[in-house]
Amino acid sequence: MASATVPPEYLQANHKKGDPPPFGAVDNVQTIRLSGQPDAVGETQPADCPTIMISTATPAGDHVNGWKEIPIVAGFDLNRLVVDQDTDATLPYYVENTKDLTQIKRVVITTAGIWRNGWKYANNIRNALICAAGRESVNADMDKILVAAPQWLNKEDVAMGAAQPDDVYYHKNTYQRGGPAVGPGDVRMSSYEALDKFIAMFWDKDVYPAVESIAFASHSLGAQTVQRYAMLRPSQPEDSRITYGIMNPGSFAWPVESRPIPPSSQPSCSDPAVYDAWHYGIGPGKPTRIPKYVRDEVLENRGLITERFAFRHVFYGFGLDDHGKGDTHCEAQLQGGTHLERGRNFMSMLQNLPGGYPVNHSVEYVEGVSHLDYHMVCSSLALRRAGLGCVADRDADGFGADAEEDVSVGLVSRTG
Q1: pLDDT > 90: what percent of the chain?
Q2: Using an 8 Å Cβ cutoff, are 125 and 377 in contact?
Q3: Which run of H or of E encompasses 146?
Q4: What is the pLDDT of residue 380?
Q5: Where are the residues of the annotated region Disordered (predicted)?
């Protein structure tokens, strides 16, 4: 497939720091940065990206006490999807507004980490897509890929004024585990059920007639959200057209009962009813934690849940310098001591499944990157695997390539 050409207005060579983005100014913060020039939240463009980086919005408030607003993002619309027909409860979301929707072939969905800053993740993935379009090795076509991001809210955000009256919201960060909403009113919808409806929106042929696939690109707590969602999502006709991109999660939902670290090392978690319960496993120990809309299925047939997860298209990305502790709960410690160790242990567990390493799963290890969301997704390896590469050939993106064992690390490396 011929390399896509990035439009000249996206090249660093044609800009200086502080220029407005090509699609128009929103404020004096969301302006152009060049490689080596940190944006408003400290993100920097990798030196090998020839394209511009657009600085992230900086709304009032914070993730601890609550956000005071959901900001407008340059090049995106902030829309709301009705996710509960009985109450008209809505899920806010960002979606690019600079593209011809009839030409979109792939939608890339990103979901925020613990800061609930969906605006930053939407901007990061859009910046990464521009970077991908400027790299011949990635072969991206910006015009055929659409970036979107749900905006999760919690009680603190509502109290500080970020939400509209009908916006669905959660307790703390329990949307990560598919927890039930705590408002508005009596709405108790699981965040995963809201994600089901969010995804379904992009299969609407009246709006997106050319869409062929959806890819998640997620990091840290956002990656925990996506991994657990991939584990529990009920079977849908479009399953084979969805890829779940999971980078540097702090912990996993383990599909099998055994753990790489002896349970005896964590006395408070020595019982599988504790360490294997949702959201660290899919055991029956704490059934009320499992999202209600899939609870019976999980409790009645663990083998089916594991097999379905193994069949799904999943990409894992791990920074080789990510030695942070991440999730410090004892359940997570039984999976490994750091982000990277847990990732490697999870890959080894997958390799030892009865059917071997799942044919539709792939993994890449990124040198020189720690727990940095933008630099993870902007690496050449991750750009292709996370759905930001060529949209014409699944094998070219790594979605259907052959698996080869990498005996040097005892894992599986998938190459395309």
Answers
A1: 85
A2: yes
A3: strand 145-150
A4: 72
A5: 1-23
The residues pairing with 247 across neighbouring beta strands, listed in sequence order, are 219, 317
Task: Report H helices in 103-190.
Answer: 118-133, 155-160
pLDDT computed for residue 396 by the predictor? 37
The per-residue pLDDT for 379 is 82
Alpha-carbon span 56 to 73, nearest angstrom: 8
Which residue from 359, 367, 365, 276 is spatially nearest to 314, judged by alpha carbons? 359
Name 361's bridge partners.
Answer: 314
- Alpha-helix residue ranges (DSSP H) falling in 34-145: 118-133
Q: Is 88 helix (H, G, I), strand (E, B) or coil?
A: coil
Q: For the chain, which residues make up each domain, given as ranges?
A: 218-416
pTM of the predicted structure, to 2 decimals: 0.92
At 290-330, the pLDDT tens digits run 999 999 999 999 999 999 999 999 999 999 999 999 899 99
pLDDT over 50 (residue 413): no
d(CA 415, CA 327): 30
Radius of gyration of the chain (CA): 20
Q: Of the candidates 366, 347, 360, 354, which has an alpha carbon nearest to the alpha carbon of residue 405?
A: 347
Mean pLDDT value across residues 106-115: 95
Which of 37-51, 84-98, 383-397 is predicted with the least confidence, judged by mean pLDDT?
Answer: 383-397
Token pair, residue 36, equals: 């080596």
The Cα 157–Cα 92 span in angstroms is 13
> Which residues, 6 or more positions from 235, have their beta carbon under 8 angstroms from its beta carbon?
308
Distances (CA, A) of 199 to 109, 148, 273: 9, 10, 33
- Cα 352 to the center of its chain, rounded Å: 25
CA distance 412 to 359: 10
Overall size of the chain counted in residues: 416
